[in-house]
Specification:
mainly beta, 6-stranded mixed beta sheet, disordered N terminus, about 160 residues, 5-stranded antiparallel beta sheet, 1 helix
Length: about 160
């Protein structure tokens, strides 16, 4: 089974560059400061590296006093994207790994491309059958205070 690993995150200045390995840690990436408040609600997350390109939307509450960002973390067997009500950091890239079999790692690397869009690349662990990401709805998703999107490595 998959499981998160403890992680390290490094920030690089001059835009939103965040890279490292994140397991139980949390990485936040979001809108540039110049984004308009009217566009806060919906984020588009594109995933390549699977048999077909995947697209998901994460809709955060549209509160005029809050600048939302997207948080990415490893959550047990899933890659979890969630709304975060903290001000965003500029120009970020994030990489999260989940342990597959033994020491093999499934990896999801995401980059903030535009105000509302993120492009992610999935790399399955070497020799893994989990070459696809499927959206799942774990019990924790129903108790989250803000919307979340859970993607689990899968074999189809």
């Amino acid at each position: 089974m998959l499981g998160g690993i403890a992680g390290i995150a490094k920030l690089a200045g001059g835009g939103t560059l965040l890279s490292g390995i994140v397991g139980s840690g949390i990485v936040i990436f979001g809108l540039p400061a110049s984004s308009s408040r009217e566009q806060k609600g919906e984020f588009l997350i594109k995933v390549s590296g699977t048999s077909r390109e995947l697209q998901y939307k994460l809709t955060c509450p549209n509160a005029p006093e809050t600048d939302y960002s997207v948080r990415l973390e490893a959550s047990f067997e899933n890659f979890k994207f969630s709304c975060n009500n903290t001000a965003p950091t500029l120009n970020q890239k994030v990489e999260v790994q989940l342990t597959d079999v033994g020491t093999q790692k499934n990896q999801l690397s995401c980059e903030h491309k535009t105000d509302r869009e993120y492009e992610c690349i999935y790399k399955a662990a070497s020799g893994s059958k989990n070459t696809f990401l499927k959206q799942v709805f774990p019990q924790e998703a129903f108790s989250d205070s803000l919307p979340s999107l859970h993607l689990r490595p899968h074999d189809s």
